[in-house]
Amino acid sequence: MPAAGRAVPIETDPLTFLAANIITGHASPLTPQRDYEGDWCAGGIGRSVRDVTSATGRRICCRDGGRHAHPAEIGPRPTEAALSRRALITGITGQDGSYLAEHLTAQGYEVWGLVRGQQNPRVRQLRQLLGDVRLIRGDLLDQGSLISAVERVQPDEVYNLAAISYVPMSWQQAELTGEVTGVGVLRVLEAIRVCSGISASRSPGRGQIRFYQASSSEMFGMVRESPQTEQTPFHPRSPYGVAKAYGHFLTQNYRESYGMFAVSGILFNHESPRRGPEFVTRKISLGVAKIKLGYERQLRLGNLSARRDWGFAGDYVRAMHLMIGQDEPVDYVIGTGVTHSVEDLLEQAFKAAGLDWRDHVVTDAAFIRPAEVDKLCADPAQARDQIGWEPKIGFEELVAMMVEADLELLSSGGHAEDSFGIDTW
Ligand code: NDP
Ligand code: GDR
């Protein structure tokens, strides 16, 4: 039984709760999680600071968003180690979730990831990559599971990266996309609001849970101006873009309605060797590797003239962390400011393997979208000036990195499914 373990749920027997909810990681019921030194903090949702004790009679340490108790009220300050921040990431099994978890772990955070499903096949890959991350079950379709997760983890920061993120799928399953990518944001915000005891008449205090929403350049859609800034109006072109716009406005609304620290990063396309193989950059880097190694001769693609502002995912998760750490919640556009066509991407990727794309690429109407976003290009000036964010990896380096990684993966007998991103649609 954890004696003074961190984040033990107040209302539940710790053994039962851990057995039921923690599916992997270090939070074994028999292994206390990292302890605070001494009983400096106590509290619970909707209960006063001084009246909550664990089953063992000890005070339980609980982050209550600073509403019930400031450490100064109740005893000695914790050590520096105990002050390390705790983050809960939804979408931890996705591309960005893995990079963000690595980045936050390196910053000394205790990182928790929300994982859905009974036997999520990505968990094994996540474990291989990120042994230190703790996982908890939950689904953006299930409000109760999100409340339980926030209550259990008691995070300082919540990063909502979970979504149905593949744009073509949003036409095939528009309602599901609306539910996960759109209303899912509402459910995460509600979980934070309910667990923090925030209402129209009760604002969050100091130390509140901070919230980051993964907004998207797809909200700009049929762009009104170029490059796109924080002020550019939205005109989404897919059910995905519409769902993201809902999540974006809702995040803004919870900030304005309840005083929550809630920010949205309007991120442009960002890629990596961990990108899902359904997205065009990875489809191309895998295609190049298969052609180079003689497994395939052709690569079938859709619209080659579409233009995107492509950056490296590792750079973009730094922006998420910088945004959530600001003094005031402000939304930023995050991109490189440089746009390339799919054709440019092909040129670069095939060249990296000593091939000519014109010998191998076939356009296929099956990959043409019902409504296309023709050109996106970020103006990241505000992010650079106000939070000091700049990308480190440029387009050519990114494409070469992805092609090299896929050549290595396939030549060592691996498959796209063995790399972090899986699922071909
Ligand atoms: P991925 O598609 O790689 O990851 C999506 C994640 O969402 C997965 O972990 C997936 O889990 C999870 N998820 C899906 N449905 C649910 C659900 N019902 N409940 C809980 N989790 C769920 O996306 P990225 O990492 O590329 O992107 C992260 C976020 O940023 C997304 O919201 C995306 O829309 C947004 N974004 C991405 C950009 C990019 O270029 N990458 C640009 C702008 C915004 P599972 O493993 O179970 O499927
Ligand atoms: P996008 O990324 O839709 O911008 O959304 P994707 O890589 O899927 O498409 C980029 C552009 O490439 C064109 N394209 C193809 N795309 C795919 N997937 N497959 C093809 O065969 C193909 N041929 C041409 C597309 O038409 C499009 O113009 C990504 C996702 O990560 C979103 O979640 C995120 O919000 C946005 O980026 C910003």
Layout of helices and strands:
Elements: H1 14-21, H2 71-74, E1 86-90, H3 95-106, E2 110-115, H4 122-129, E3 134-137, H5 143-153, E4 157-160, H6 169-172, H7 174-196, E5 210-216, H8 239-258, E6 262-267, E7 270-271, H9 280-292, E8 299-301, E9 307-308, E10 311-312, H10 313-324, E11 332-334, E12 340-341, H11 342-352, E13 361-363, H12 381-387, H13 395-411
Parallel strand pairs: 1-2, 1-4, 2-3, 4-5, 5-6, 6-11, 7-10, 8-13
Antiparallel strand pairs: 9-12
Helix pairs in contact: 3-10, 5-7, 7-8, 9-11, 9-13, 11-13
NADPH dihydro-nicotinamide-adenine-dinucleotide phosphate binds at residues 90-91, 93-97, 116-117, 120, 122, 139-141, 161-165, 180, 214, 216, 267, 269-270, 276.
